[in-house]
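Inputs:
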Amino acid sequence: MQQTYPFETLPLPYEIGALEPYISGETLEVHHGRLYNAYVDNLNKLLSDRPELQNLTLEELLRRSVRMPKSVGVPLGRYAGGTYNHVMYFYGMAPESSYRPPQGELARAIDAFFGSFDGFVREFTEAARAVFGSGYTWLAAGRRGLTILNLPNQENPLMTGLYPLMCIDLWEHAYFLDYKNDRAGYIDNWWKLVNWEYAEGKYEEYASARRRS
Ligand code: MN
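Outputs:
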């Protein structure tokens, strides 16, 4: 994500009702139009009087936030994370009609680290079901390969030295209107919407950054 300050709310990459019946237009309207948008606004407000941070990308802001004094680092991590994580979540989904399983390098890495695609789905689903309170489950890449991790609130794998490839938002606002308290049902249906092309692109970004370093 190459954007810098002032950050813009990116449009949904599909029509508002395109993820129905699994995620309703009503849910996306609140989630994208209000909640994500509020993170972008708050991030811009926080950066407005900090010119030394204004030329940094979201990736750089997130990596840096954990090394800053808490008075700035904590809100910066929340707002930059809330911005970055929601872009990954919304762009990491696509209408069911365009679904296909992962391909190429990412598919090979998933097989290598989780035994099979089905094994990966089982492990990720188990992790997602175990999230307590608000947070996300992530697939991330790092020096030791692929890993599944749960992070609370708006934390991001970049804050732990890993590179995010895909995520599921497990805050109640992501599913409560459609599923009430049936989070497991939301997780099961989310698999039908995963945009593997996007995750493959993130993996390629990670691999090429690694080749450069
Ligand atoms: Mn959310």
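Remarks. The pocket of manganese (II) ion is lined by residues 31, 35, 86, 169, 171, 173-174 (CB under 6 Å). Residues 31 and 174 are 7 Å apart (CA to CA).
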